[in-house]
Amino acid sequence: MTLKMKVPLIAVLLCLTSCVLVGVLGYVQSRDALYDSAVNRLSFIAEPRLKTCRR
Questions:
Q1: 3-state SS string over the chain?
Q2: How far apart are CA 9 and CA 13, in angstroms?
Q3: Whole-model pTM?
């Protein structure tokens, strides 16, 4: 394989690798943010109900 083929191939592979990495990290962060948001909303709803049940 000549250098004319190696350099573009390496560039394309690095680009694809970085795209996959950015996609995976974005997915994981979004999933965690949605989970935390759901927990906060449920906690906000559940706290007053727990207080009224304890009385």
A1: CCHHHHHHHHHHHHHHHHHHHHHHHHHHHHHHHHHHHHHHHHHHHHHHHHHHHHC
A2: 6
A3: 0.69
Residue with tokens 């995976």: 24
CA torsion through residues 27, 28, 29, 31, sign: positive
For residues 5-44, b (16+ Cβ closer than 10 Å) or e, as one string?
eeeeeeeeeeeeeeeeeeeeeeeeeeeeeeeeeeeeeeee
Alpha carbon distance 54, 40 (integer Å): 21
Q: How many residues does the chain have?
A: 55
Mean pLDDT, 10 residues at a time, the chain of 55 residues:
93 98 98 95 85 77
